[in-house]
Predict the structure.
Amino acid sequence: MKYTSIPDIPCPEKDSFGIHPYAQGLIRFIKGTKTPITIALQGEWGSGKTSLMNTLQDELCGPDGQFLPVWINTWEYALMQDTSSTLIQIISKMVQQTASDNNKRKALFEKVKRISTVAAKTAIGITGGDGSAIDEFFSTKNSSVGELRDELQKTVKEKVEEDGKRGFIFFIDDLDRINPPTAVELLELLKNIFTLEYCVFVLAIDYDVVVKGLKPKFGELTDTNEREFRSFFDKIIQVPFTMPVSNYKIDSFLQQSLLEIGWLNTSQAQTTPLIGRISKTAQLTVSNNPRSLKRLLNNLSLIHCINASISDDNEKINISSNLDVYLNFTLVAIQIAYPKIYSILKKHPDFTTWNEEIAVQLNLKALDDDEKQRLSKNSHFDELWEQILYRICESDYYLRSKAINISTLFDEIRTAILEFKDEGNPIKDIRSAMEDALSLSAVTNLEAFDDNPVDIHTSSFLKTVRDLLIKELKRTMPKIRETIEPASARVQTNAPVWLIPGVHFNLHADNYHSYKGKILLSIRLDASIDCDTLQYDDIKAFYNAIGHSEELHRIEQEYEKTVQKYSQERMSCFNSRPLLNVVYPGANSHVVAMEFWAMFPDVQQFYKPDVVAHLTNMVRVMYDTRQKLRDAAKIS
């Protein structure tokens, strides 16, 4: 049976992430260790600590293993209980599992309960100092504690010898899910009660949890008291093992998993550049954390199932090409890792056109002159749109720490759109590509619905407008009427139209509430300027060599004058960007983007003859301007 999801259940599964050498190293170490000893598996939540512990238990405590297992899930004991009860139940459970005789279990349980109650209250009462009070409680001067240790040691030895084993391994899981001070108190109790021969402790806990738990004792972590925090950890833990997340081999895991859920076909799964791009996206968003990766994959599988269930071809999103697969994977990853960025992309898909207007809408803090100069020298933030992205990140504590990753990811997206051989959709600019990917990923978004968006059937709306424009263009542009035709039979969020071979314009439709209850239709026609003599991202050189030429300046003025003429009559409904306001680098060229848009409260307004005439005139202006630019600046 083919499954549609990847369960997030910790288990000793096949070595999908390449952790086998590390697990075997730990197994070899434990087999040869002297006891007592405590090993800490350190790593953030979801990094694979429990799965590794399961592997250790299977190898070391199985039928042929040398050890007896005791597994304690601290989270289960902490639910709906106070700290004292949690600690007593955990310690008591551990004690009972070391004795094979029921009478011994009962006797030990009563003694442990009595001593642990006093110890727990002592630990809870400590609000400062170095923990000497609880150390004093468990010192050899306390005869009852000494007697308990002797009885436990005797019981552990008897059980080990009875079963012919080397000792016990206590697997203490989910310490990072309980209250940090409770976790620290449990560590102290374990150290003072179970520092016994034949006992190995494997703890799933991160140093950060210990730091949080020690704040009642030492205050906030600073340079002056860091040694105290570290000394406590070293006193409890003899062997720290950090989960090798940065070394996880996620390429093969993603390749296999995406193939299993049907997101990749066999050919794509064997396409190394595609898998490489997908892996890089994962590292820049959800990182190599197994739990986060599985959540991402399950979101993708749900999207795949929904898309497969849509019977209308016009409603289906085409994700057959490598570019579509990459972009949809990337947008869902952004949705999970950076929901604020995803929300902004929904409203402004072409991030390469982000400018001061967008910054004002987002209420972003302005950059001072020193910041602008510093960013202009940073390859991650030297372009205008990158500086807007930087300001978005600066407005959020978490995003600020991920700004470089996010900028790198956006550069990867731009490069992929410009360079991928997109066999399924030959015409794909940044905006249309991003809109298609966003429309598919929206189903798994946790964000609340937009307020009062205008309800339109995007595909039908675009087809109708496209057909009306084509009819009018054929009438008003007789010289090229034979080549004017739809560039794609499939219409999703954009509708491309050929004017002449190699030259097309795109129609896009949005219905976001930010347009105050109106539908926005935009027409965009790009002009690619050959940049053999320019650097890939050398925008300044473009302006110096071409953008400031007298001829281009004249063409730009003519364009602006004509646009203003056609927009004058109904300025509130029609608008446009300045010609050279949107210029971005391509793989082998620089692109001048000409864009014009109209906004109306309902679709019927767009079908009126005078509106169709306005839109047709703008297409003609863009086409004529492109022809002039071609002659002036060697545009292909």
